[in-house]
Amino acid sequence: MGDYSASVQVGIDTGGTFTDLVAFDPDSGEISTFKTPSVPSKPGQALLNAIDGAGIPMQSIEGLVHGTTVATNALIERKGARVAFVTTSGHEDIPYIQRINRETLYNLHWRKPKPLLQCRTDTFGVPERLSSEGAELRPVDTDAVIAHCRQMRDQGIEAVAICLLFAYVNPEHEQQVLEIVERELPGLPVSVSHVVAPIWREYERASTTIADAYLKPLMRRYVGSLTESLTTAGLTARWTIMKSNGGAMQAVAAADNPIQTAQSGPAGGMLAAAAMGIQAGHPDLLTLDMGGTSADVGVIIDGEQKHTTAYEIEWGVPAAIPLIDIKSIGAGGGSIAWVDAGGFLRVGPESAGANPGPACYGHGGQRPTVTDANLILGRLDPSYFLGGRMTLDEEASTRVMTPLANQLGMTVVDLASSIVEIANENMASAIKMVSIERGHDPRRFTLFGFGGAGPLHAAAVARSLRIPNVLIPLYPGNASALGMLIADRRVDKIWTKAYKSTNIDAPLVEQQFAEIRDAAIAELRAEGFTGEPDISYSISMRYLGQNYETEVPISPEAVTAEGLAEAYDSFIRVHEEIYGYAIENEVIELVSFRVTASGKRASPRLAVVPESETVPVRGMREVYFRGMGYVPAQVITRYLLQPGTTIEGPCVIEEPGSTTLVEPGMTVNVLEDGQLVISL
């Protein structure tokens, strides 16, 4: 790579298949990228490999932001710590009872998912009780807590999750139990619900607290090991980790609040999408981030991401954390094609991952994947994968495709085309969930295609949804890492208290907003932000009798009786937008009150200068399209394209981290900053 000044900013996203790096040198304005295979058994090693491969001296790194799948993978693979669940006596079965709803209505063999607890004997009831208003009904039985601690020690407990009834109203009992546990079991990681998830709904609060404790030992080891490796390699700057809400936090804070990193990597991609969409004049985006293992989709309106707390580790096992609203499905380049019991071709969610990866990687993969299909269809250049640093084996792809093609009575090419189409439809269905099902017409948006495989599939997905334009950003294969470079600091704080619109204590609400605002700012300062933070307020509301609430932004100046009346009107408008109806003059419940404190930082305006005046067309290649067969398509080197260039499809636009496919009848335009807009 090039020479770097002593103030380079680095973003690194470790995914399931590849680890992506983006470096920005503020002195020269130069952006450089690097992509290397992930090392699932040693996630930190891939990060060091990326820095070394990019040729960046450790001492020149002024800031490093890391997006990691360590927490996500541990939750999915159930490889966390053995957790003791401590709760109010008589409520030990909360993690097991869960909810009355079912994933599949008519499946008689369906079983509720298991909580993140090894066994029922790892739950401990403490004699104590608070009222729903936070008044003490029964003091904490300290002798019982001490006895439980001794039993935990004998059982080999590795972390403790404390979740007492109504602790979100009054945390005093949880604090007493915490002090005893820390004294009796020194050094053992402990998570408490009034810190992790101060919300009502006992199951969601308990599940989130258990998940935080489940991850704590693992994340502490990961952060400690990586800090030691980076320091030994010469890094002197403090490094940060992406949070699921789109902010960044000091690595040591992430070790103490690991559940906040459950969607660390995808959050970076959404930040990049918002910034690049505004820069290109497309502020309303549907996003498609397709990597090697999964595809993540989301929505951005007027340059702003949507946030939610409705995250599920798996169906029925929630983690109520603030995060950017992203829908993930098992549709990546490594997604495996298979035939179900009914004889139908399916694609995913199982993935070949980084090891062994698709058959064409030559690492022992024996099952057909989406990447193998794209290679057979001529959409990938076997000699230019990762910019030529990796060669793909087309014969291996054909070899693993042949048995499945024979089973289905198809040619290998037809099978490959069908695999790609099924993957595309899976992604289109996911986009419908975040658009049509939430009242947004996809035809009013631009599709933002990124990730290593996103630009290869984005045009077909847009065609399926009748989306008129596709925006392909700079360095799409590294977009999540790029987003980490522009991530603000962000802290979300919540206060839970149920009110009705007909009977609300506005002065108390104003006082509590001020208290959690001050707490959010203090946490932001602790994470290293020294500037003036941006503050935003919101209230979660619902009609009286509804089961789930809707978050409504309000002005910090509106926390008065008159201002709250305006908030009710906002709720009615939002409810009508989402559900298609509103009920005038109905009583509204206010459930929780949230403050977000953001530490803004300047984002570099990204642009590329064409590498030379060389003609960008490298040649022609036969590319297969359904109904047309193999069609000659131009093969173009992306960063030789001049701004203002217009190209008619079909064509394949190649760059080291990704490949963009433009179908016949489509047109691609190169914007002034180098981004591509495909018009359908």
Description:
By secondary structure, the protein is an alpha+beta fold. Among the domains are: 1-67, ATPase, nucleotide binding domain (Nucleotidyltransferase, domain 5, 2-Layer Sandwich), CATH 3.30.420; 80-219, 3-Layer(aba) Sandwich (Rossmann fold), CATH 3.40.50; 490-599, Dna Ligase, domain 1; 617-679, no CATH class. The protein is 31% helix and 28% strand. Strands 13, 14, 15, 20, 23, 24, 31, 34 and 35 form a nine-stranded mixed beta sheet that branches. Helix 11 packs across helix 12. The radius of gyration is 26 Å and the shape is globular.
Basic shape: globular
Mean pLDDT: 88
Low-pLDDT residue spans: none
For the report, how would you describe the main beta sheet? 9 strands, mixed
Number of β-strand runs? 35
CATH architecture label name of one domain? 3-Layer(aba) Sandwich
The helix-and-strand class reads alpha+beta
**Estimated helix fraction:** 25-40%
Q: Output the CATH class name of one domain.
A: Alpha Beta
Provide the β-strand percentage band: 25-35%
What is the CA–CA distance across the termini?
Answer: 36 Å
Number of helices: 16
Task: State the assembly state of the protein chains.
Answer: single chain
CATH topology label of one domain: Rossmann fold
Radius of gyration: 26 Å
Structure described in brief:
By secondary structure, this protein is an alpha+beta fold. It is built from 16 helices and 35 strands.
